[in-house]
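Q: Sequence in, structure out?
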Amino acid sequence: MVSVSEAMAMLAAQGDPARAAGMADYHKLPRRYLGVGNEAVNDLAQGWRQALTLDQRLELADGLWRSDVFEGRVAAAKLLTQARIRPSDDAAWDMICGWVPEFDSWAIADAAMMAGQRRIMADLTRLDRVEAWTRDPSHWVRRAAMVGTLGLTRLNHPSPAEDAARERVLGWAANYVRDPEWFIQKSVGWWLRDLSKHDPDRVRAFMAQNGRAMKPFARREAEKYLGRPDAPGLAVADSAD
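A: Exactly. Output:
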């Protein structure tokens, strides 16, 4: 078992004070930054994920999240970023949902929602819980509903259940298009952009109905790949920002 203090020491050993100062200036949030690069966080989290049982990973993830250190929270999310968690992923899903109300930056929220995507795709009935996020006062929580369901955009041949889930999220997106918050508009554009690589006609139909209500930058994002003959089936992984 790796304790929280041991894990934090391993992260700190990879830190760079100059990088940490730059991260603090960029994120502008009053938390501790160690200045650890993404690759180093990934490598450490992967090693812990492979070495620990699920219960041990959950305990470590909980402690790292509670540390409120930037890299600790990112590493906590990466401990639960796994396509299949057996015999049950209910505890991991509950933990991720417990983090959502604390989201305050895109980088931490996106790391957590990469884990959330796997849990949602493993059980689409979890969309009932996610739908409540779309009505939350926090734009970070509302945004999490879109980022957490990005897995639905990346299917070339969705099952009937997956297609229905995709349509459900497009309904949320249609309600979001008049939201003036930049991060909400960005999340809609991102979702549609990724969907356009696999189902461009559906995105064209959405834009015909809703495009005029979107901010210009979000429209450009959504339509980035439309009109390209190779758009269906592209597997490019783009950044959130």
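The two ends are 36 Å apart (CA to CA).
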